[in-house]
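User: I'm preparing a small set of examples for a lab meeting where we compare how different chains pack in three dimensions. I only have the primary sequence for this one, and I'd like the structure in token form so I can line it up with the others. Please keep the answer compact; I'll paste it straight into my notes.
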Amino acid sequence: MFGAVTIKDIAKALGLSTSTVSRALNGSYEIGAETKKLVQEYAEKVHYRPNPIALSLKDQKSHSIGVVVAELANNFFSQAINGIESIAYSSDYHVIITQTHESHEREIANVEHLMSRHVDGLLVSVASGSTDLKHFQSLRDRGFPIVFFDRVVDDIEAHKVVTNNFKGAFDATELLINNGFKRIAHIAMASNLAISRERLNGYKAALEKHGLPFDAEYVKHCLHGGRAINEVEEAIAELMALAEKPDAVFSGSDRITIGCFGTFKKMGLTVPNDVAMVGFTDSDVTELFDPPLTVIRQPAFQIGQMATEMLIKQIRSKYPVTEFVTETLSTELIERGSAKNTAKP
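Assistant: Understood. Below is the structure token output for the 345-residue chain.
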């Protein structure tokens, strides 16, 4: 049998009607157990696969979900997408991935493209350049399924999956304080992102707990989240030009963390002798740095899985979803050489 096997081919081979074969493949109670077994075993033998276009025409579903992230090169997002795909494909959904590169305009274009592909729902981590989120609000107003993850939107009612950014930042800052560092700078992503505000608040809370003053000069924001290496270099140059240079840096994202380490090396600063460092990152290669980086790790794979499970459940719901939840997962502090105080006895 050449080409894709159809229901008509199976019906002809078994001497059954196409409707009987269709109901047998769908497990209908109207079809006897023996007939079901006959049809299903033969379908498996000839490698029958349902036609996705025909299925989408039948139930008005494309059986695909769209993903909007900043960039695939970011370790957090690459791991989150692995989690997304692990759930989506096992649930018979295809995944269409788009990147915003932190651009508001590209985010809108990506959403429009995904909607033109008739995706059944969206998984979104908003771009740092997006402050006007009407493109998402208009979809939610129509009841379109959206789940936000990591970079979520406070003002839009939807399911959300996040990590405990406050606690992660608090733990990072407190570790540096406990190791004897007093002048701790924080290099953050764009200030309009909720995760930036939460991590900044965690940083401030740790300083306050230990009686250290908050100095706004020690906080630098990178609009592009470290994608533009010059913004990380400029932030560090400004910090190191202060009369009271920071003796440690807490960085707020994967890209910024990697960028900081490279910039320190370029400036001839040694970690942790000249400046200690702790940063948010999900990259495994940080363990191979010299010295190995102390990091706050997010459960990116699990975040992707959970967000996808929530989206598919919403897509398959027979009734409009009106109650939404925010799931918060814990971060993990992994202490390595970059946060050690070499001057501390």
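A couple of notes for your slides: The two ends are 78 Å apart (CA to CA). Residues 7-49 form one domain.

User: Perfect, thanks.
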